[in-house]
Amino acid sequence: MKILLLSINYWPEVTGIGAFTTYRAEHLAAAGHDVEVCTTFPYYPDWKVPAEYSGKLGLTEVRNRVRIVRSWAYIPGRVRSVKRILHEASFIVGVTLRAFLRRRPDVLFVVSPPLGLAVPAILLSRFWGVPYVFDVEDLQPDSASDLGMLPRWMVRLLYKVETAAYRHARLVTTLTPNMRQRLIDKGLPDSKVELIEPRMDESLMCLTPEEGSAFRHRYHLGDRFLVTHSGNMGVKQGLDVILDAAALCRDDDSLLFLCVGNGAECDRIKRRAAALRLANVRFFPLLSQTDFRGLMAASGICLVTQQHSVSGVAFPSKIVSYLAAARPIVASINPACEVAQMVRESGAGIVVPARDPAALLDAILALRRQDLRQAGENGREYACARWSSARVLGELERNLSEAAGPAFRSLALKGFKP
Fold first, then answer.
1. pLDDT tens figures, 63-100
2. Cα dihedral across residues 209, 210, 212, 217: positive or negative
3. Range of the domain at 113
């Protein structure tokens, strides 16, 4: 089966959609499929193109049997609504032109956001006479509306694009049961919406105390109890609640908050932490795989934070890594959302309302006094049952082969190939 995958994020990006798309494409290629990815140059979450990719209009490279076809896109230095629109629009134009020059695939796999990728998906689908699968990682119109990030006329336009994207797709896939239900509530037939959940990284199941000690020594962290937030630092994450919680316990020398990653809000959050003189907060950039393993091994508690309004329309992939690494969790989110339900069901931690720093700190201190090992093991057991690579990637292959047509359905029976 020949698969053409359209995604704005891909390797060497290691967080969010880029990580999802990479392991999916590489699994399909390892299973014997012909996989080509049309994307742009890496930029996320730093919003900066690395030097080795800078200044290029296009590039084709191969990694782990996947052909990666890159096209130029405008990458703003400071992310604002208008600049983000230009960023996505430039990518959509570039990827459309590059994709039209590729060989006809059997199926298109289109990753949203950006929602505007629906436009090339529809055009390419009609031009080649092939189906497309529309993968919804974030309900972008709902997020924009809830956060007030765009004018109303633009939100209305996004909803029209969303309707067209779903109507013309052979299949729509998404990450969680709650997101699937929201798509059905928008009018999609139950049979047209499938669940392809994130895959856990099984290598995080074998962390060692030595890795944690080496990380502590390398970054001079001593024996302080580490409370970690890792991943994107954007508007949706609502990271101010972490700084406010840290301010409430600034005199507790035993506790240290680590904010690891980058994103649109990173510089502002750093400036605010400096203005508050928070000596108990440290910032780290994106870490290498070795350092990330050390971070997980050293962390006592990991944090999931989200704005109350977006908790039902976006899934923070960090929770899968936290649970695979057997890290206890405190989640500052909408208590009614699906992530909150996961934390409660798994027994991996505590849920508190979003934007409540006192509740966040109380939960951290309460969980610290409990059996952290048991909470971590509860979370890992839950992750193994729900997000194993064999199950998740097997479902991905089955859905794509069925969408491509009856001739390819037998290929899905191959299952996962490590």
1. 999 999 999 999 988 777 788 889 999 999 999 999 99
2. positive
3. 2-199+388-414
